[in-house]
Prior knowledge:
2 copies of one chain form a homodimer. Chain A is built from 9 helices and 10 strands. By secondary structure, chain A is of the alpha/beta class. Chain A has a 7-stranded mixed sheet with strand order 6-7-5-4-8-9-10. A 3-stranded antiparallel sheet of chain A has the order 1-3-2. At the A-B interface, helix 1, helix 5, helix 6, strand 9 and helix 9 of A face helix 1, helix 5, helix 6, strand 9 and helix 9 of B.
Amino acid sequence: MTKPIPAPAVKRLSLYLHQLENLAEKGIERISSKELAKSLQFTSAQVRRDLATFGQFGRRGVGYEIGPLTKSLRKIMGTDKTRNIILIGVGNLGRALVRHRGFRRRGFLMVGAFDIKPEKIGKKVGSLKIRHIRQMPRFVKNKNIRLALLTTSASASQEVFDQLARAGIRGVLSFAPGKLQKPPGVAIGQVDIAANLEQLAFSLTSEE
Amino acid sequence: MTKPIPAPAVKRLSLYLHQLENLAEKGIERISSKELAKSLQFTSAQVRRDLATFGQFGRRGVGYEIGPLTKSLRKIMGTDKTRNIILIGVGNLGRALVRHRGFRRRGFLMVGAFDIKPEKIGKKVGSLKIRHIRQMPRFVKNKNIRLALLTTSASASQEVFDQLARAGIRGVLSFAPGKLQKPPGVAIGQVDIAANLEQLAFSLTSEE
DNA sequence: CCCTGTGAACCTGTTCACAGCG
DNA sequence: CGCTGTGAACAGGTTCACAGGG
């Protein structure tokens, strides 16, 4: 029986990892659950519990060695080797994502950008040439791509998602609102900016 | 005693609202918890429980009237009247967000864009003139702005956040990685795209 | 009889508190 | 003695199952 891993814990792993990288840059080599917790506004028990979910990384009486721990967490997250990613839908948001600096630092490399509009094909976005989505399946196969960002309109997103799934993509991060129907074996993440804003707006209503 | 409202329920309210708007466009006037649930891949009990958290909207034996329910939910979310928002940090992502079509539809109107770089000031992004962040506090006060999007670098985000809080902003949606230290009375939302990608990458490791 | 609204059971994830190792 | 790792208690949210109105 594979033990189930709490999704919230995985979410926090990202934060731990990011924080540890910052600390390493400052030359710090060890940290206790208490200190790490304080910097992220969590409790020390939470940090220990989370890390313990994935293995035994600390030394009693001492704390965690940042170097080895960072390495282990990267491996767990699947970002110990650089992962190639592609983007479908080169609109405003798509363009910004292709140029986004943050991915590289976290182990992701944007290697392809696709769209369906003829007038966009062949143009450049950042250092990438925009390809027709027709060429996506071969590209995915050749370069062994597993992850894609989806920034098409809501109306096109299900159709494009299905194409990605057929092409062998294993995880899709969608920026379109609306639930995607997913086949088994493909993971979906969704970033809904307007929904996030609405949640903020809600917290205002209770206070004013 | 004000009863506490589960944060996950608020998150789902956004989804209900969006779905109901879609249904209304199709001319549908009534829906049962079961049908609404199916379209979002939730359970009917969940839908009923969530809606009941905020009031009594349904009729037994019948279901929910889409028109009135939509109106009520908008009011609850605080988006029944258009809310003005501003953006700080006109980089790649900022530019995309200013031009983003989705906000208007959800009741948000982008009315100001600010940056600190002299060479950007006075240029246009979409239909907005970029202003110096120095002018932000007066702008916020005059136009009575409550919400802001923050797309500065991680290193600047805490400093800018504090300025926003001092200017009277009540909710900030940040796109920079790293936890912000927040004063009471200001709500924070965070969108960390790289972290979302990492979570997808994680789900891959367990399967391959 | 249909479908909502809701106590109660259940379950999952968090916090507590301490045993155990360095 | 310090700090991790972890059973056990706890809390919050979800699901069940049914009472009750239309």
